């Protein structure tokens, strides 16, 4: 299914630019992606597609062609975790994430689920080839993969891939000409607003996901730039769920949008949003609770309600710490910290950020030996984690 869609796109748009990348500013065509995909080393049982690499799309195509699972990785330094047990037959995509649960694991998706996610985003968001995507978020995360990578692969919607979200990285794409589809997270949207990016006329569709978008920021951007920021809600386990398609700012902060085509959302007796989706993961190498992927619906970690088709979120109860849209596992950080020289105990907690759009910050509480070196400890930790996982707050308790 997936390969058939790609083959059609590659044949129809062979000489068209598929994406621009800082590694090749002149761009790479759909035909070049297809040719490079035939040179990808497929000798391993599982392939790894690195979101920042020029080989990201060719690797995905090579995996589809050889019917091998592919793991999405953020960058060259990302650590691929061993998969517990066997990968289920029919798996084409593996997401390694802690999601809202805060428990790091591998999620397995079959071909039908990946295709359903891509087609739903195309129709639900109104994506088309005349409006290219601007990838300032990671293509290897669920959000970027679903609304940027899959539309390129399934419908030939071209991308400008920025090396980072800072305004200076977006300007070349914005000045290239033509309308732009720009997904971001609230913290990034705040920066783009403060630096004037939101006023650029090329942005014709703006999305925000990953953490709550405040009414204050949404309304301020609309007032100054006449740009509507559309809420986009989903989970790693189910893919996209809801979209705020309205053309004016929301009046209720809890409002996420209405269900995307083919999605139903209800609440269980505890008030958790439960989702029925054909894009749901088929399983995990570490189920969080019994029947998590076998009941036909997926119970999220979000408390909320469905009011006449409008989805509202009141609170997330998962253990993950949400740092500007990035989910961080406290258990993982604690394990790494306990391995550092001079650290005997480690506990990670969340702290509310003074900047609402960042949502939460990480607080590390450490028991340390009397001769510990604070600077050396932090530098050693920095080598072992991603930048957004670095604690902003520290407590050191010297052991007696």
UniProtKB/TrEMBL annotation:
Domain AMP-dependent synthetase/ligase: 127-265
Gene3D superfamilies attached to this UniProt entry: 3.30.300.30, N-terminal domain of ligase-like
The protein's name: AMP-binding protein
Membrane spanning stretches: none
Sequence similarity: Belongs to the ATP-dependent AMP-binding enzyme family.
Highest taxon of the lineage: Bacteria
